[in-house]
Structures are given as C-alpha cells and as structure tokens.
Amino acid sequence: MPHSDRLQLRMGPFARSKHLIAAKRQRGLNIGMNESLRLADEHLACTRRHFLGLAAAGVALTDLPLLFADDAAGRDLLAREIAKLSYLTPSAKFRNVERHKPLPYKLPKEDRLRLGLERETWKLEVTADQESNVELRNPLSKEKGTALDFPALMKLAEKHAVRFLKVMTCNNIPEPLGTGLWEGVPLREVIWLAQPEKNVRRLYYRGYHNENPKQIFQSSLSIGRVLEDPPGEQPVILCYKINGQWLPGERGGPVRMVVPDAYGFKSVKWIQQVFLTNDYQANDTYALQNNDIDSGMKSAARFMVWPKVVKAGEAFPVTGVAQCGQSGVSKVQYWLHPTDKDLPAGDRYFEKGDWKDARLLDPPEKWGSMLPDGKLPPGMGQFDENGKPNEWPPRNAIAHWAALVPGVPAGKYDLRARTIDRNGVAQPMPRPFQKSGGNRILSVPIRVFGS
Ligand SMILES: Nc1nc2c(c(=O)[nH]1)N[C@H]1C(S)=C(S)[C@@H](COP(=O)(O)O)O[C@H]1N2
Ligand SMILES: [Mo]
Hints:
The protein is α+β, with helices and mostly antiparallel strands. The protein has 2 domains: 3-85 and 298-449, Immunoglobulin-like (Sandwich); 95-289, Sulfite Oxidase, Chain A, domain 2 (Alpha-Beta Complex). It has helices at residues 3-8, 18-27, 40-56, 72-84, 109-114, 150-160, 187-193, 223-227, and strands spanning 31-33, 123-128, 135-136, 148-149, 162-168, 178-186, 196-198, 202-207, 218-222, 237-242, 245-246, 256-258, 271-277, 300-307, 309-311, 316-323, 331-338, 356-357, 359-360, 398-405, 411-420, 442-449.
C-alpha cells in the first residue's frame, strides 16, 4: 500500500470471527488466521464440510486438527455458527475504503436528506463536461429539474435490473474487502435517457464529497465499456441493493457505481454526478496515485486458516479463498518450503517451487443467511436458468479452497499459495506489477515440532 493510501484509509470495525475466537478459547488452539479477511465465518462452514467429507471417505486424518473436530462441543459451536454462515459477506463486515471527513453516512439524518444521501432525496445528474464538445440532447440536471431520482431508477429497475456476484478488492490491498450480490440498473440505460448524440469518448463520475473539492473521489470509464459488455461479462451498474437489502450508507448507498471487472476504485460510492466527455484521457483520483487505472481483476489465492504449530509427521489443513480475475481460476496450489532452505535462485515469481494441487471447493448450497433459505434469487448474471454457475468460480467473484498438507519433519516452514488461471498461467503472472492489483504470492509461517 502506498504511503498516501495508508494515511487515508479508514477501516471498518474490526470484525474478527467470533467463532474462531470461541474455538480458540475453548480448545487452547493455536491457529493462524487472516485477520483482515471478513470472510472467515463463511469460509469455515464451506471448508469444514470438505474435511469431514474426506474423513467420511476414509482418508486417514491423524489428529484431524481441532478446528474441524467432530466432537459434541465442536459440533454445537460449529452448528450454531454454520447456521449464520455463507459465501457472501454481510455488508457490515466488509472492510471499508473511504476517505471523506465527515463520512457521508455518519451525518445526521436531516443532513443526509438535504444532501441527497437518502433514497427519498437522491438525485443523479448526467451532464456534458463543460470543457468538452459533447452533444447531449437531454441532460439530466438538478437545475433543469430533469435529474434522475430514486423512483425513476426503480422504474428502470422493473425492466432492466441485473444481479451478480462480485468481490470488492482494492488494488492496493492483497485481501478482498468482501464478496457481495450486487443489484442495480445498467448505467447505459440512464446514459441513453440523456440522449448523447456525438463527441463522447469517456465518462467520469463522482460521489458526494462534503461540497469540498479536496474530497472529490472520482473515476472514469470509456463509453464503450459502459454501452457494451464482452461475452460473459456483467454490465456496469448503478447499484442500490447488496445481498438482497437496500444498499446501506457505509457501502455507498443509497446508490453507488459497481464496475464488475474492475478494482474497487472504479466503484464510486454515494454517486451523484456523471459527466460525458470527449476527453480521451482518464481522470480517476487513483490515476494520480500511481495506480494502473485500466486494470481488470487478477486471479490470486489468499489464506484464511492455517495452523501455526503442528506435530511432525501429521497432516494438517489449510484453507483460503481464490479471487477469480479476468482469466479465471482453474486451480489453486500450495507449496511448503523449509524456511532455512535456500529458495531457487533467480526465481522471482516462485515458478520453480514444489507446488501441489489444493482443492477448489464447489459452489455452496447456502450462499448467505441474508437471502431467503440461503438461495440466490432468480435472474442472476453468471448463472443459468436452473441456478447453475456458467463457470466456477465466476469471473470477478471468489471460490473457497482447502488442502490437507501431508506431514513433514520438525522445523520451520513457509507455506505459499497461488492460483493457476484458465490459460494455465500461474500467479502472479501474466501481470506481476502490483500497481495494477496486488497479486503477490503470499506466505504464512508454520512451525512443525517434535515427532
Ligand atoms: N465516494 C467514494 N467512493 C469510493 C471510495 C471513496 O473513498 N469515496 N473508495 C474507493 C475504493 S479505493 C475502494 S477499494 C472501494 C471500496 O469499497 P467498499 O468500501 O465498499 O469496500 O470503494 C471505492 N469507492
Ligand atoms: Mo481502493
């Protein structure tokens, strides 16, 4: 993360897995966990099922790690937690990336109403960039009384609403911020209301910024990306719901942009203004911070749960999530390497490691307790009419993975994980530069003791 981001980022409340804390306390467990990932609870439900399945199939799991133990206490604890768990991250558990002071959603309600930060008063303007020669027949503006309001957006939603899964990831933060089921109206429907005629190459857009130019956070897209979606890709949307509920203020509500194939900075929250321009250059806030603002999502494996300490010769479980970028994910691999043994020389991207296949877990049966019966609604992008994913994992979303690592002699080890995309290319290739999305191969330390 660049220095400037570190200063500006404000994190959501530290939402560590209650289940893990309880399990740790109860059993004196010493497990590692990716504290910044808000997917922990959801994840445990999926992966535990996998390990119990292995045990049931007769795979010998000596001393199946306590986290996954099937004794009565563990079962109760897990059953209670599993009931709440899902693939989707509850909105309140996302990590927030926001830089406004005060935060728009923390203003008093009467201010939010006055400033268009509530559904009752929200308005979106779609106008021509004054420095450009765009021809627009019907600008949607507050001044002319033609701005789009929430009822008008809902009217469009009746006919055009779309829903899809997307993991929100900041290109400068290795772990995903959260996975949502986002619902909205394709932005192009609103662009067409404004009747652009010619000289339009890009659009740029911004959210509420406390009427302070220094707090403007804006992003841009080519008009082409907004008007047309490549095969298998979802549209750019004006999003008003997450996980079946109205989009809350902390997630960018009442309405935010969601750009399915892009990193988080394109998905501007508290959206209020769109400008059409004939400028051919991007003017994203993130462009000024050395970021590659044209980058599509990358595939990358991240850790969720691993043992910090294991016994020599005993197999142990490790789990994680795989973010599915534009080239998909065909598998996840892990590599356990003794810390004091030299790494292969000149092997910058760990291509010569002794990589072993992990298991990519199937789509969950229950996606989230916030959905009726945990089921996805009908009409999901990325899924067919029977609710089957067109490909797994879906592009721009995630899948859970798990591996049972065979026992090794005592010593200190580094455990690494990586994805292989659908072109057969291993992370962090084909795009290893971090300012287009942090996809470095991560490692966690594991200590193996005694015999
Ligand atoms: N208005 C506004 N929108 C914004 C931001 C912001 O600071 N202000 N941050 C962006 C960045 S950099 C990211 S990574 C995502 C994070 O989305 P989240 O807070 O819903 O997790 O929001 C984007 N949208
Ligand atoms: Mo970001």
